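Good morning,

Attaching, inline, the backbone tokens for the sequence recovery test we're adding to the shared suite. The designed sequence is right after.
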């Protein structure tokens, strides 16, 4: 580097600095490229992080020495000018991700000197010019000690200090005083602070380690959890390596290897993410998952794609991190119990003294937690591995970390003999059907590894993700949340939100088969065959082992095989079509099965993820249940349907009783039966007020928007003269405004107008902000329908939306005449994109088809849109040739990645539709 100084020149000049900066940039770039290349070659995440940290060390040392010797010419420092440059925080561990911040401490003996300030400033400006993010502090040893004692964040950063260059004696002095004056005697407060900080962090990132787009650094089961364990270990046990944790008896050698394996994997993922994105990206989003899976060398296997195999491995690692946390907490608790000194400690220990659980010698209660009486309880009787959870459920106990630690170390005892043991199976069934909190005990059983070994088929879906935007959790997490939903129904917690389903719970006699079906309904996910059919086969084999009789086994298998049929029928079929109800009733056959399937369906949908369940889906399910119940009980007839629609009209009239008679009658009679039977009464009242206000103003076209924060959606209602292209234009308006349509309902009124209700996904957390956005979209709809805007201009201003191009959904179009006696059903499935609904409905209009009803369902990145259509004469579509033309035309919509929205401009103007006067 001395060669950078021009002959007879000034080392502090701009020419020298520019040359030095260019050299540093080249070295830094080449070093990072080498680290990325080696990461591909050896796959070592920790090695990669250490290499980047070492590269950073070398750059800092070189600049420091150059500045000291050449720029400022002060190789011989006075005692007051001594300075140590230390790495702290994550950098202090000797590991850096490509985009990580560099945390530096300029450590001084006393106060800052002019030379020290100049050297620090020279170094920092060069690092910033390199494009690095540098956090720094300049403090004396005294300041470091004082601030560390006051602030746990500073204490944590200094806990992982490391000398890069400079005065070693100064660094040693800091270490001595830090241990003596900061950490001594304050370990418990530090542990409590770090664990509380961890809990807050978990809540911010979703409080589950099974989110399908996890945060690798901050999320539950991520790197920060491992760092928290090591911070506590360094502070409390004075250890610096994993080997020392083994020597201290905290981890076994196997657990220490698990720690290293988890840390190495998470570092590899994180480094790949930073290299790939060129920024410190910590969220493993869908669009990154496929690329990272490829970089890590995962391949597709039957039933699981490469990305699904990678993410399953990720969640298994996250589960290992949770296991290690439990083991570590057990060791801490045991250590604290031993350290309780003197009389006070004796009294505390006496008050916490364990007591025996009646009827067993193997388990004790310690501070309202179940624990083991000795370390041989599972080897003496492996059934105790199930009995532990049964007793905890029966006595409403949490689990002592010691007990779970011993369970994890005894999993080899869960073998074929234990699985065949009738008592063990009976105990498991008791846990599953616990009246208090079955989810808690199943979750602990799953986290400890017992559930996946006792039911090997369940073990196959542990930590398995489904690579789509619909499911928010892994398969096992989803199943546990489904069971939790049933428990909440039994406790009456959802009575106001789900009155019909909550009422069923009080009357069902097949409670045990229902719980088994809830746990098993997705157990065959990840297999090449249909998971519903494969799951039914698993149920037929497993249920007798669990102690269910032949009738109960048949019921569970049926529920598993048919667990999707109710939701699919409710959301994707016309519930006012008599054949829909007849076909569904033939599959259900009995009222008891209908109730059980309804409960399972509601629990299943609500456990998919936040915002998936909404009132509209609830209303569809209630309507389907009511129609099917009538048929199964012999009460189904056209007159009954009319009676129910008339009853709905009387209810609406009662709610509008304060209106003038003529206006009230007009509003009550303006809708066909399908509207009265499917739309909730509160919404009917709201729609009546909206239509009445439009008529008062003489508006032929009107819109209104409302937000639903609880459902996480926004609803836009459009009143306009009916026309075949109306839905296409509304959908095009929403797409051009950047709004993603999640649902749409189409109702033709008796006066020739249409009432279309479009549900879009929410963008803003605050209602006021979201309502302003919704009003803008509604005005866009009015402008397009009124002829004041054109699609191309709207598209030019379209705001980018989240891409679904990371996903692959093969398009499918079916044209069926067997689902309705009067109408042809066109079912379209494919990858969602902005404007897709507009393109599909526009294509249907181009085919001279009249849409009588549409059922729009979005499953994340996949849409299933179902249209009930006729030809322009009101007849079914007859002839395979015409059906094939429909299929080809709609499949062609998916071939255009940019969509066909602009084609709408080639159609007659909205004025010709009679939309504007």
């Amino acid at each position: 580097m001395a060669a950078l100084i021009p002959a007879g020149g000034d080392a502090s000049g701009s020419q020298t600095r520019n040359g030095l900066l260019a050299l540093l940039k080249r070295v830094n770039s080449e070093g990072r490229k080498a680290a990325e290349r080696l990461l591909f070659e050896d796959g070592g995440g920790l090695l990669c992080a250490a290499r980047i940290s070492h590269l950073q060390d070398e750059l800092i040392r070189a600049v420091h020495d150059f500045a000291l010797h050449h720029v400022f010419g002060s190789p011989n420092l006075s005692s007051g000018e001594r300075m140590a440059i230390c790495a702290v925080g994550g950098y202090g561990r000797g590991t850096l991700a490509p985009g990580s911040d560099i945390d530096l401490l300029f450590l001084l003996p006393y106060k800052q000197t002019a030379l020290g300030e100049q050297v620090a400033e020279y170094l920092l400006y060069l690092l910033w010019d390199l494009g690095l993010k540098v956090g720094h502090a300049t403090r004396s040893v005294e300041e470091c000690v004082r601030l560390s004692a006051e602030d746990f964040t500073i204490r944590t950063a200094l806990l992982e200090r490391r000398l890069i260059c400079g005065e070693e004696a100064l660094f040693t002095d800091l270490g001595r005083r830090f241990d003596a004056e900061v950490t001594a005697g304050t370990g418990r407060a530090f542990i409590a602070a770090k664990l509380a900080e961890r809990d807050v962090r978990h809540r911010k990132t979703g409080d589950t380690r099974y989110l399908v787009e996890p945060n690798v650094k901050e999320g539950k089961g991520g790197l920060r959890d491992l760092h928290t364990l090591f911070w506590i270990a360094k502070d409390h046990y004075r250890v610096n390596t994993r080997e020392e944790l083994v020597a201290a008896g905290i981890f076994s050698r196997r657990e220490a290897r698990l720690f290293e394996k988890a840390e190495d994997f998470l570092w590899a993922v994180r480094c790949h993410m930073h290299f790939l994105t060129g920024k410190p990206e910590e969220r493993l989003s869908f669009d990154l998952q496929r690329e990272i899976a490829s970089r890590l060398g995962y391949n597709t296997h039957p039933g699981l794609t490469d990305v699904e195999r990678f993410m399953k491995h990720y969640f298994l690692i996250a589960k290992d991190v949770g296991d290690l946390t439990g083991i570590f907490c057990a060791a801490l608790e045991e250590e604290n119990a031993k350290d309780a000194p003197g009389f006070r400690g004796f009294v505390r220990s006496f008050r916490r003294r364990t007591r025996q659980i009646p009827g067993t010698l193997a388990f004790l209660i310690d501070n309202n937690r179940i624990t083991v009486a000795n370390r041989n309880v599972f080897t003496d009787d492996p059934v105790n591995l199930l009995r532990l959870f049964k007793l905890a459920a029966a006595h409403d106990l949490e689990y002592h970390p010691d007990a779970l630690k011993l369970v994890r170390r005894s999993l080899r005892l869960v073998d074929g003999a234990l699985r065949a043991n009738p008592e063990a199976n009976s105990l498991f069934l008791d846990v599953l059907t616990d009246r208090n909190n079955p989810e808690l005990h199943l979750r602990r059983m799953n986290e400890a590894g017992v559930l996946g070994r006792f039911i090997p088929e369940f073990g196959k879906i542990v930590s398995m993700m489904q690579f789509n935007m619909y499911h928010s959790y892994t398969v096992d997490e989803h199943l546990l949340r489904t069971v939790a939903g049933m428990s909440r129904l039994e406790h009456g917690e959802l009575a106001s939100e789900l009155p019909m389903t909550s009422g069923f719970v009080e009357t069902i006699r097949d409670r045990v088969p229902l719980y088994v079906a809830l746990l098993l309904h997705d157990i065959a996910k990840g297999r090449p065959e249909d998971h519903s059919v494969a799951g039914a086969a698993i149920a037929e084999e497993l249920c007798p082992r669990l102690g269910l009789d032949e009738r109960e086994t048949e019921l569970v298998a049926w529920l598993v095989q048919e667990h999707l049929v109710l939701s699919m029928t409710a959301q994707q079929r016309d519930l006012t079509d008599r054949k829909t109800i007849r076909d569904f009733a033939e599959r259900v056959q009995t009222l008891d099965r209908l109730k059980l399937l309804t409960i399972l369906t509601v629990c299943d949908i609500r456990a998919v993820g936040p915002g998936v369940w909404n009132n509209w889906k609830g209303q569809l399910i209630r309507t389907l249940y009511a129609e099917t119940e009538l048929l199964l009980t012999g009460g189904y007839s056209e007159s009954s349907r009319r009676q129910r629609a008339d009853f709905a009209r009387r209810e609406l009239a009662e709610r509008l009783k304060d209106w003038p008679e003529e206006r009230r009658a007009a509003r009550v009679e303006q809708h066909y039966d399908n509207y009265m039977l499917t739309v909730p009464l509160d919404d009917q009242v709201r729609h009546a007020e909206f239509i009445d206000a439009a008529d008062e103003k003489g508006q032929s076209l009107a819109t209104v928007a409302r937000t639903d924060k609880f459902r996480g959606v926004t609803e836009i209602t459009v009143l306009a003269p009916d026309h075949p292209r109306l839905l296409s234009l509304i959908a095009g308006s929403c797409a051009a405004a950047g709004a993603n349509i999640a649902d749409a309902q189409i109702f033709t009124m008796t006066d020739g107008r249409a009432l279309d209700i479009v549900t879009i996904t929410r963008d803003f957390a605050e209602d006021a902000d979201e309502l302003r956005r919704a009003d803008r979209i509604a005005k866009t709809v009015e402008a397009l329908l009124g002829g004041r805007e054109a699609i191309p201009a709207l598209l030019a201003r379209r705001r980018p939306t989240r891409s679904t191009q990371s996903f692959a959904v093969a398009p499918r179009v079916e044209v069926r005449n067997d689902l309705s006696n009067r109408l042809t059903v066109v079912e379209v499935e494919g990858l969602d994109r902005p404007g897709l609904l507009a393109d599909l409905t526009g294509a249907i209009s181009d085919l001279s088809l009249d849409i009588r009803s549409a059922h729009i369902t979005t499953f994340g990145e996949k849409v299933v849109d179902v249209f009930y259509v006729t030809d322009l004469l009101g007849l079914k579509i007859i002839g395979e040739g015409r059906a094939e033309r429909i299929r080809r035309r709609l499949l062609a919509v998916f071939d255009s990645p940019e969509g066909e929205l602009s084609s709408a401009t080639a159609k007659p103007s909205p004025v010709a539709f009679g939309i504007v006067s």
